[in-house]
Amino acid sequence: MKHSSEAPHSVYGVEKWGKGLIEVTEGGEIGLRNPLAPEAPAISLPGILRDLDQRGIRAPMILRISSYLENEIAHINESFAAAIARADYKGCYRGVFPIKVNQQAQVIDRIVEFGQKYDYGLEAGSKPELVIALAHRLAKEALIVCNGVKDAEFIQLAILSRKIGFNTVIVLESPKEADTVIEVYNELGIEPLLGVRVKLTNQISGKWEESSGDRSAFGMNTDQLVAVVDKLRDAGLIQCLKLQHSHLGSQVPDVNDVRRAVGEACRYYTELTREGVPLTHLDLGGGMGVDYTGEKKATENSINYTVEEYCANVVETVAYAMDEAEVEHPTLVTESGRAVVATSSMLVFNVLESTLYDAPNGPEVEPDDHHMVADLAAVHGYLSHERLQECWNDANFYRNELRALFRRGYVDLRQMARAERIYLSLMARIKALVASEHVETDVDDQLEKLADIYHCNFSLFQSLPDVWAIDQLHPIVPLQMLDQTPDRRAVLSDITCDSDGKIDRFILADGVSPSLPVHTLPEDDDYYMGVFFVGAYQETLGDLHNLFGDTNVVTIDIKPDGGFDLLHEQEGDTISEVMAYVEFDPSDCVAAFRKMVDEAISTGTLKAKDRKTLMSAYRDSINGYTYYE
């Protein structure tokens, strides 16, 4: 429990996880800072929403901040450049962005734009992603790294793209894939640019530890690697093998895991070089993590290193290994996705209503009420700090006994309603006593089970799939009223008809909590929530639970003077669009509904004058937003 002398907003820990991008303004609102203009004041996020609302763009929405994306690309590239200079490293850095992490056109277009001066490229793990990559005019030295399972068509396109200047690297994942490459080469007569993916035995810690080690899904073991090298040599293609790919893992929490994995990758690189393989590039895959919680610890949702430390560890480890083996320093490649794009997007939604688990006052006991109703009400008479646990025990005992009596028919509906209201009024007083103590108590922990439910205008399954599927944590905080002490605690329920559609783990200043401190909902204004750092995966993994589609998406650029420019707006899915996703033809649905309306007129159950109103309502709905309006 926070002491009253601290700022009301300190409970949310924004200063810990905000990365200098998110802060609380003097007016108690979430503010966004421009990292490209650090002297500029923060711009109010609720102010942005009010401006967008006037333009007809409403929550729920994904809000992308262009300058955040530009800043992260610069940060990673310049940190590698600085580490290379400090270590007197003889190679250079060529990063690539994995398209799978965020496939949205506005994101990829800006990554290519901001990455031009760094020769920043793209990673494609499928044919559709390769098609996207080849539609972008990359810098001359930029790479397109092709990972994943590849058929002959994929390989043919990758090889042919070299004819128009793309540095498209086909990373061989298996001996069978090497056979396919050789077949396509024999048909085309064009030499490919090749890489080979090597499984590392070192396994990282963290949520995605299964993506590393020799049980990982992709890449070859040592025996397969040697077989592929021999195949390429026999086919006259060994000179095409330029890149070794060794994926470190995903969201690696511990920098020492990075060092160990890079060291093992270097051993393969130097041994392949001794085998006569003319390698020039060492691709260390993904792994650079994001500190979602601000803990700066090696935990599932945090990391114990900075971008600068990550880059320094990679460069120093490779430099030492290559110098020891007397091998030329390779061009370093990483496929950081989460670290590039996570911070650039946030989900914003409004709270529609609340279900409260306390009440300001209870009703009077009536003469004919069961004696346990009076016993429950009598707890009010001895409720105090000293008897807090006793009162908690008594209140729950009497309430549970009354529920049992109701089920057996000894208590009627109105008595039960009065009892529930009395119980809720006791909970309100107990919560107030616990809050005033400023110390943790056993009752405080038990009260977490009575957190309110704030019903919110979003779909967890569409916009935050990792929160539901793998317990990913994202910072979540109210966007306004942060100069006022939160007077309630709540879990967040989404708009879907699914009991799993809720968030009940929150990042706070003092750790992870099963409830979020919130404010009593204002009567005359929207109460907004923001979920931050959702740019990685959340925009592309969502499903259509209850046919809630994509939200509105807005891309803005924060101006140095404190304003913003609206760069792009993508309207969210309409009902007709999501119907088409699941194989319904909207026009057929309109026709079928019209037929039933006309039949109702024929049988007299509907008046002819109501036909227009009913058909208009159906058409308006089918063309409307899937979320609450």
UniProtKB/TrEMBL annotation:
Q: What EC number(s) is this enzyme filed under?
A: 4.1.1.19
Q: Which SUPFAM superfamilies match?
A: Alanine racemase C-terminal domain-like (SSF50621), PLP-binding barrel (SSF51419)
Tagged with keyword Magnesium: yes
Which CDD domains does the protein's record reference?
A: PLPDE_III_ADC
- Which segments constitute the Orn/DAP/Arg decarboxylase 2 N-terminal domain? 92-342
Q: Which GO terms describe its molecular function?
A: arginine decarboxylase activity
Q: Which UniProt keywords apply?
A: Decarboxylase, Lyase, Magnesium, Metal-binding, Polyamine biosynthesis, Pyridoxal phosphate, Spermidine biosynthesis
Lineage: superkingdom: Bacteria
Which cofactors are reported in the record for this sequence?
pyridoxal 5'-phosphate; Mg(2+)
Q: Which residues form the Arginine decarboxylase C-terminal helical domain?
A: 575-628
Q: Which InterPro entries match?
A: Ala_racemase/Decarboxylase_C, Arg_decarb_HB, Arg_decarbox_C, Arg_decrbxlase, De-COase2_CS, De-COase2_N, De-COase2_pyr-phos_BS, Orn/DAP/Arg_de-COase
Q: Which residues form the Arginine decarboxylase helical bundle domain?
A: 367-447
- Biological role: Catalyzes the biosynthesis of agmatine from arginine.
Give the family per the record.
Belongs to the Orn/Lys/Arg decarboxylase class-II family. SpeA subfamily.
* Protein's name according to its UniProt entry: Arginine decarboxylase
